[in-house]
Design a protein that fits this description.
This protein has 74 residues and is mainly alpha-helical. The chain contains four helices and no strands.
Length: 74
């Protein structure tokens, strides 16, 4: 995988590193993920992204867990 070099101010760099650490990822992975989302997003990708974000959330509603199939069942 090719490497790139970017320039950002010190405060943004510090905040980015804190954010990455809080989300248990690397700054490199965070930037890669943001770029991938920005430049490769298809119109229906937002649905998958929503489900992914919900799966990653550490919140439990205390109720029943639904599967994707159950949610989309008609």
């Amino acid at each position: 995988m090719p490497n790139i070099t970017i320039s950002i101010d010190e405060e943004t760099l510090r905040a980015s590193r804190r954010y990455a650490q809080e989300h248990k990822t690397s700054l490199n992975a965070l930037i890669r993920r943001m770029l991938e989302r920005t430049v490769t997003r298809a119109s229906s990708d937002w649905v998958d992204e929503c489900f992914s974000l919900m799966d990653e959330a550490a919140v439990r509603g205390g109720g029943r867990r639904w599967t994707r199939d159950e949610i989309h069942e008609r």
